[in-house]
Structure formats: C-alpha cells, structure tokens
Design goal:
By secondary structure, the chain is an alpha+beta fold. The chain contains 8 helices and 8 strands, in the order H-H-H-H-E-E-H-H-E-E-E-E-H-H-E-E. The chain is extended. It is a multi-pass membrane protein.
C-alpha cells in the first residue's frame, strides 16, 4: 500500500509540473525570473517533502498542490496587470555600460564585480569596455551587449504599452521622435502598443487594443 500511495503522489506531482507549464505558457520550467526560480523550488520541496511522508494523505497533498497553483496563477496575474508588482517581484534589467562607460554603482548593486563583468564581455568576444555602446544585465543574469557600429538595437522600443528609454538612447533618439513616428502610423495611444521594434530605420508596431484613453 505504501508504494501505491507513493506512486500516486509521484503521478500527481508530474501532472502538477505539466499543468503549470501549460497554464503559464512557458513551454518548460527553465527560470526566466526570480519568481520562476522560487516557484520551481517550492514545487520541488512540496513534491520531494510529501511524496515519502506517510503522515500526509493524498487528499491533503492535492490540497497543497491546489494552494500552490492558486498562488502561482495569482502572482502571474498580478505581474501581468501591475508593473509595480512585476518590478518588485522580478526586478528589472540593469544598464551596466553606456557608451563605453561603466556604471560602477549599478554594477555593485547588481552584485557584479569587475572580474565578472570582464568575463561576461570576453564570453561575447569583447575585450575593451570602450567598444561597448550599451550592456544590460537581464533578470536571469545574462548580459546583453550592443557594440558601436551595430545599427539595430537588441531591445524593443515599446513593450506592453511602456516606452523603453534605454533602447531610445541606444539608437540616439528621444521620446518625442518615437511619438511622432507612431502618429505617422495612426497610433495616438502608446498604451495600445503591444510591441514596437526598430529595424533598419523603420518601426514595426503590433497593437493590442483600439486607441483609447490618454492620447498623445
């Protein structure tokens, strides 16, 4: 009987993994943010700590998984609809280098030493900071580097209705230029833009909603 209960708990744990992958639309459990890592750790602790514990019955185990599911989906909903919660939970990209100059304070706050930064640059074939137009540390620890001479930025101009100032700086443009370009495409509300990308001097816009709300 003990092995049957363990097998049932293991199957439930596997189903929980499949469900969370499908419901979050990630495709896998590879963490892309701090909250993803925490969710994986918690699920691993739940399954690993409960599966051999005979004091926790299958119904209780299912209840624990249901609570975990509710917490994960609630946090996902909050991050999607509240930028403040998203920044607080996942953090945000940090610009470490701008136009060949290192932001030492930003690097120290991110826990990046000079040796770590040099190593990350060398991994991308860059051996001098002066050759870097912009280097941004992502939430997952990956360093995204744009060198002088690269025409297209590696980040979008607008994501989920929010203008990205760092990308504008990378292409030597300002917000007024971006708003004017959007108007030429009939877009008067930045909040309706799902994604805007800059490619070879042109802006490609994907809208999510009809123009509404505060106009520019």
């Amino acid at each position: 009987m003990f092995y049957i209960i363990v097998a049932v708990k293991l199957i439930l744990g596997l189903l929980a993994l499949v469900l969370v992958i499908n419901l979050t639309g990630k495709g896998n459990l590879a963490p892309a943010s701090a909250s993803d890592q925490v969710q994986n750790y918690v699920l691993g602790g739940i399954v690993g700590g409960v599966i051999y514990n005979t004091d926790i019955s299958i119904p209780v185990f299912m209840l624990i998984l249901a609570i975990w599911f509710a917490a994960v989906l609630s946090l996902r909903w909050l991050k999607k609809h509240n930028n403040l919660v998203k920044r607080w939970v996942d953090g945000q990209p940090v610009m470490l280098i701008s136009r060949g100059k290192i932001d030492v304070d930003a690097a120290r706050k991110a826990g990046i030493s000079a040796n770590d930064l040099s190593f990350k640059l060398r991994m991308q074939g860059i051996y001098a900071v002066k050759d870097v137009k912009q280097a941004i540390l992502e939430q997952d620890g990956q360093l995204i580097v744009t060198s002088f001479g690269e025409e297209n930025p590696k980040y979008p101009l607008i994501t989920d209705g929010s203008i990205q100032p760092a990308t504008l700086e990378m292409i030597d443009k300002d917000e007024n230029w971006l708003l004017a370009e959007l108007k030429t495409q009939g877009i008067t509300n930045v909040g309706t833009v799902f994604l805007a990308e800059y490619d070879n001097g042109k802006i490609t816009v994907t809208s999510s909603l009809p123009n509404q709300g505060l106009h520019i």
